[in-house]
Design a protein that fits this description.
- Helix content is 42%, strand content 26%.
- It has five helices and seven strands, in the order H-E-E-E-H-H-H-E-E-H-E-E.
- By secondary structure, the chain is of the alpha+beta class.
Length: 177
């Protein structure tokens, strides 16, 4: 499990320039709270109604693809197995504040996977409607790239007895690519 020092080494901050950068990509970052992200999503839903889900999902797909490319570059070689790759991807999402992510299911072939997200950054206030389309897009993009398969997905969000917000993303491979 990643540590606090892993988190601190994930970002570079220059207080003189007010510049925050990702150690993974070297790219400049804009840090948004999960409340700000929800507010942006709500604005999209007001403007585009159900079309907002597709926009937000595609944003997640693009981000997940970029993240996957950077992790692949950093590793300098293809990791020895899908399970190792999933661990690297999970650690990076954890360090970026998405929540604690665990993959279960058929991790070798990727035919059917479940992704459990504890303390999900996107639905910490309410689980009355699915707010995880961005995260779902990130997960779909990464698993598609890793397993060379297209997936259909379903998300179920809930609150545990300990008041943790838990999202379960179920992925089923529908096509080899």
């Amino acid at each position: 499990m990643p540590s606090v020092s892993d988190f601190q080494s994930t970002y570079l901050f220059d207080p003189h320039l007010a510049d925050v950068r990702s150690n993974l990509t070297g790219g400049r970052m804009v840090v948004l709270s999960s409340e700000a992200m929800r507010s942006l999503q709500e604005g999209l839903y007001k403007k585009f109604s159900t079309g907002a889900s597709v926009i937000i999902l595609e944003m997640g797909v693009s981000y997940g693809s970029m993240l996957f490319n950077e992790i692949e570059k950093q590793s300098k070689a293809t990791p020895e197995s899908e399970a190792v790759s999933l661990r690297l991807l999970t650690q990076n999402l954890f360090k970026e504040g998405f929540g604690k992510i665990a993959f279960t299911g058929d991790l070798e072939s990727g035919q059917a996977l479940q992704v459990l997200v504890t303390n999900c950054a996107f639905c910490t206030k309410s689980v009355s409607e699915n707010k995880c389309n961005f995260l779902r897009g990130v997960i779909i993009s990464m698993t598609t790239r890793l397993f060379s398969k297209q997936f259909k997905s379903n998300v179920v969000c809930s609150i545990s007895q300990s008041a943790e917000h838990i999202c379960k993303i179920e992925l089923v491979a529908v096509k080899q690519i």
